[in-house]
Amino acid sequence: MRKFKTESKKLLDLMINSIYTNREIFLRELISNASDAVDKLYFRSLTDKDIQLGKDELEIRVAFDKDARTITVSDTGIGMTADELEKNLGTIAHSGSQEFKDENDFSETDAADIIGQFGVGFYSSFMVSKNVKVISRPYGSDEANIWESNGIDGYTIEPATKEKHGTEIILTLKDSTDEDDYDEFLSEWKLRSLIKQYSNYVRYPIHMTVTKSRALPKPEDAGEDYVTEYEDYTEDEVINSMIPIWKRKKSEVTDEEYAEFYKSDFHDFTDPARTISVHAEGALSYDALLFVPGRAPFDLYTREYEKGLALYSSGVLIMDKCADLLPDYYGWARGVVDSSDLSLNISRETLQRNSQLRAIANKVEKKITSELEKMRDNDREDYELFFDNFGRSIKFGLYAGYGMKNDELGPLVLLYSALKQKYVTLDEYVDAMPEEQNDIYYAAGDSIERLSNLPIVKTVARKGFDVLLCTEDVDEFFLQSMHAWKEKEFKNVSTTDIDVASDDEKKIAEEAGEANKELLDAMKEILSTNVSDVKISPTPTDAPATLTTAGPISLEMERVLSQGPDADRLRAQRVLLLNAQHSVFETLKTAQESGDKDKLRLYTDLLYNQALLMCGMPVEDPITFAEEICKLM
Ligand code: ADP
Question: Ligand 1 pocket: which of 62, 88, 134, 164 to mutate (most atoms <8 Å of CB)?
Fold first, then answer.
C-alpha cells in the first residue's frame, strides 16, 4: 500500500467527511477528465501519422449497476501508465495544489471553500464513493494497470487487463444513511439529468445504455378486448448534445433554434427579444451567447432575483450564474460564456480576482450596450418594449453611478415627451430644444395623463419648451444623479428652479408682488408651517394657484421618500405661486381689503389644498377641506 502525499491526504479527509452540498459534481469532474484524455489522444493523432482513429472511437461512457452499487465512467482516451497513475492520482495534480499546501490550517467548515477554491477533480469521487478503481491502458501499449483506493489510507497499483486503450473508473458508492442518500445516483434518470445539466456540451459523445419500453406486436388471434402489452429493451444512447449552440456561427443557427435553447435553458416561455452571439479569438478567446428577454421575470426587482451568466470552460459547466459577468444594470440579461482560457475549477472567490474573467465581463457589457443602441436606432418599437421591461434597471444604474455611467447608459434612456406625446431619448430632446431654452425640463408624478394636464406643464409647453413626463419612482432620482445631459441641467418644472419667464413677465410679477405685499404676507401666515413662501407667479398658468418647491427635494421626491425611514426630515419646501391674472386673485384681494379674516383663511386653505391635489399629493386634512367646500356651496 502506498501512502497519499500529506496535502492529498488532507484534501481526501475533507472530501470524505465533506459537508459540501454539491457532491453531484463528481460526475462532471470525471467526465471532464475523460474528455481531456480523449482530447489528448485526438491532438496527438493530428501530428502522429501512426495513430489512426475512427471518428466513433472517441467516446465517453457512463454506466451503473444497481446491485453492485457502482457507477462506471470510461473513456477511449490517452490512458495512463503505472507511473502516471502514481503521479496523477497519488498527489493533487492540479494547479491549485501549491496554494493548497500553503493553506494547511483549515477547519472542516472551510471544506466548501477549499473545494470551491482549488477544485477537486478526480478526488471528488470520494465524496460519494467508499472505493474507487481506475483501470487504465495507455494508447499504444498492451499493459494495463489498476489503481485502487478507499480514499483513507492510501492506494495500490497492480497490473491488470483491459481490452482497449483508455481509462475506466469504477466507483463503489457509500452506503446510504438517514441523512445521506447515495442510492439516488444509481438511476438512469439521475445520471442522465446530471450529464445534461453539467456536461451537455462536452465535445465527445457520452453514451449510456438506457432502458426503453415498446409495444409488443398484436397476436393474430387477439380478441376484441386485447390490451396492448409492452416490453422493456435496452438501447445505446448519446446523452449530451455535444456541439454547444454558442460555438456555432450565427448564420448557421435559425432564430427558432436560438429561441428553443433560450426557453429551455432559461425557463422562459416567451421568445427572446434579441440574441447576441459573440466569437472572440486572440489574446482573449471566448464564445458568448446572450439574450435580451422578451419580458421581465416577475421577481426581477426583488431580492430573490439572481443575476448572472452561465460560465463554461470548453463546454463544461463551471457555474450556473456567474454574477461577476454582468453589471447590475444589465442584470436582466441571460446567456452563457464559454472560454477555454478559464480553469474548470475556478471558484467564486477567485473569479473576482481573475483578470480574464473581468476582461470578458467588460466585453460582454459593451456587446449588450451596442445591441441596445442598434435596437434603439433601427427598431424603436422593440426598443420601447424593451425599455418598458428593463428600463428601470438602466435608470438605477445611472442613479447609482452618480454621473459616472452617464456616457454609457444616458443614451439608452427613454422618457415620455409632453410635446411629441411619445418616448424620446435625451439626445432627441436636446436636439429639439429652441435656442433660448437653457435647461431640460421634466415633471414627475404618477401618470402621464395627470402630468400632461398639470397647469405648469401646459404653460411651459405653450412657450414651446418640451417637458419630459416622469412616472417612475426612480426617475427624478436618476435625473438628479445624472445632473445634466449635454451640459443642460435637468430642472423640475414644479420647482422655483425653472426659468421660463421672459424679462417682462418677471418684472410684472415683481411689481404685483410689491403691490400686494400685505395679502401675500397674510396668506403666508395662514399657511405658516405648510409653505415657506407665497408669491406671484411670473409664468401664470390656467390655475389660480400652483405649488412649487424650493431646494433639492421636490414634492414627488417627498412622496417617494415618505415610504422610507427619514420621511419626516425629508420634506419638500413648498412655495405657493398665485396667478395675479386669475379672477380668484381679485376675490382674495377683496377679502383682504374688507378685513374678513375668516374668509381669507378659508380661501387660502382651499387654494393650497387644490394646488396639492393638482400635484397628485393628498390634502392634509380632507375632512376640513370637504367642509370648507360645503360652506361655499
Ligand atoms: P485535474 O484534472 O485538475 O488536473 P485531477 O485530480 O482531476 O486534476 O486529475 C489529475 C490528473 O490525472 C489529470 O491531470 C490527468 O493527467 C490524469 N487523469 C485523470 N483522469 C484521467 C483519465 N480519465 N484519463 C487520463 N488521465 C486522467
Answer: 88
The residue whose C-alpha atom lies closest to atom 20 belonging to ligand 1 is 33
User: How many beta carbons lie within 10 A of that of residue 256, not counting itself?
Assistant: 9
Cβ atoms 219, 74 nearer than 8 A? no
Classify the phi-psi angles of 331: left when phi > 0, otherwise alpha if psi is within -120 to 50, otherwise beta: alpha
* Ligand 1 pocket member 324 (CB < 6 A): no
Residue nearest to atom 13 of ligand 1 (CA): 88
One DSSP character per residue, 18-56 reads ---S-TTHHHHHHHHHHHHHHHHHHHHHHH-TT----GG
Burial of 147 (0-12, 13-18, 19+ CB in 10 A): buried
Q: Which atom of ligand 1 is nearest to the CA of 123?
A: 6
Gap from CA of 111 to ligand 1 centroid (Å): 21
Pairwise CA distance, residues 466 & 458, whole Å: 10
pLDDT at position 100 over 70: no
Rounded to the nearest angstrom, the distance between the alpha carbon of 606 and the centre of ligand 1 is: 83
Q: Rg for the chain (alpha carbons), in Å? A: 36
* C-alpha cell, 38: 480523449
- Residue 608 CA to ligand 1 center (angstroms) comes to 79
> Which residue's alpha carbon is nearest to atom 16 within ligand 1?
88
Bridge partner residues of 597 (DSSP): none
pTM of the model: 0.69
Q: Is 93 in the pocket of ligand 1 (CB under 6 A)?
A: yes
| Mean residue pLDDT across the chain | 88
> 121: Cβ below 6 Å to ligand 1?
yes
pLDDT digits (tens, 9 = 90+) for 227-283: 999 999 999 999 998 888 899 889 988 998 898 788 877 878 789 999 999 999 888
What domains can you pick out in the chain, each with its CATH number? 9-214 (3.30.565.10), 248-383 (3.30.230.80), 413-492 (3.40.50.11260), 494-633 (1.20.120.790)
Ligand 1 in reach of 94 Cβ (< 6 A):
yes
pLDDT in tens, 321-366: 899 999 999 999 999 999 887 765 565 556 667 788 889 999 999 9
The protein residue with its alpha carbon nearest to ligand 1, atom 7, reads: 121
Rounded to the nearest angstrom, the distance between the alpha carbon of 33 and the centre of ligand 1 is 5
Question: H or E segment at 512?
Answer: helix 503-515
Q: Which of 210-214, 331-335, 613-617 has the lowest mean pLDDT?
A: 613-617
